[in-house]
User: What shape does this take?
Amino acid sequence: MPTVTVNHHEIYYADTHPAGAPAHGSTLIFIHGLGSSQNYYFPILPHLEQHRCITLDTYGSARSPYTGQPVSIASIAADVVGVLDALQVAHAVVVGHSMGGLVVTLLGAQYADRVKAVVAIGPTHPSDQLASVMTQRSATVANSGMEPMANTIPSGATGPRCSPLAQALIRELILGQNPQGYAALCRAIATAPAIDYAAISAPFLLIAGAEDKSASLEGCQHIFDRVSSGHKKMEVLPQIGHWHCVEAPEEVGGLIREFAAAL
Assistant: This one.
């Protein structure tokens, strides 16, 4: 499987166009959320065939091994830049879901020279409540493994349109995690820094789920209102929860395709 070593750890990735983006297309790099993997994005990739799509497992998730090396939102952002460097990509559209939404907003604010545009899908907004939830979740997984998460999240964090097949995929994504890596990423979210959303000037798309309890509409609106980009758009998907790309791949894929076509 293709891997690249960045910042002293291995990152597993896939690349739809290793030779470079197709003519008139862009390079997009995708960062998944907590308890997930690059495979979260595969249901939307058929909508983006005219672009180069790089998907990765963040350090400590799925097939990117956890070694005990510390991890933070800033270190994940640095890993993304490291992957772009290794693949000789000067700048890319950064796409992030949930925890990955934290990462791409940080990239947009701090790595403007590498970011062509930002797509935030159900981005989490740092708060005391989020820190408390993540700290508790880290302890649960450290004591009981991934089963408690796999038995609750697929139904509890999705909307009424979510199919049983999509819930099964979410369960598999969660059970495929290293509990130590998952707990470390919980702590990374709990200690996430405040992000200067006003520093994001690149084109910006935010996709929210109307039934999302993990990244609330209020939090998404807070982020969107503070982004300074002159080309920004927020879309709310009815009856969709927190796992947008598997709950509504056609809508999410179509929105990103339309957004990327205008860049």
Q: What stands out?
A: The chain has a mean pLDDT of 98. Strands lie at 3-6, 9-15, 27-31, 52-56, 92-97, 115-121, 204-209, 232-237. The chain has one domain: 3-261. The first strand starts at residue 3 and ends at 6.
